[in-house]
Amino acid sequence: MSQILIAFAVGGLICVIGQLMLDMAKLTPAHVMSILVAIGAILDGLGWYDPLIDFAGAGATVPITSFGHSLYHGAWQEAEKDGLIGLISGMFQITSAGISAAVAFSFFAALVFKPRG
């Protein structure tokens, strides 16, 4: 039960930070999303995101900061093996499953639900 509370608290804190950026800094949702992705990549580059995942579990892997972590992680792993080409291909290779799932689920949701127009 405590792991659920930790995940909820950490994921909630990440969301609160995003909401504060929207409300106080008057940033657009696209700016907030880009900043949170960049923060996730920076934290992974500093070696802090993996310990956060170990501590918070889904509280750190579900928010958008995890996408930045995945981009950096994939790029760095492939760059060590294949150099510059790996740097570019690694970002797409590690995140392709999540992006493909989002596209497929969005398509099926559009078939089931009537979009507002």
UniProtKB/TrEMBL annotation:
The lineage of its organism: Bacteria, Bacillati, Bacillota, Bacilli, Bacillales. InterPro entries: Spore_V_AE, SpoVA. This is SpoVA protein.
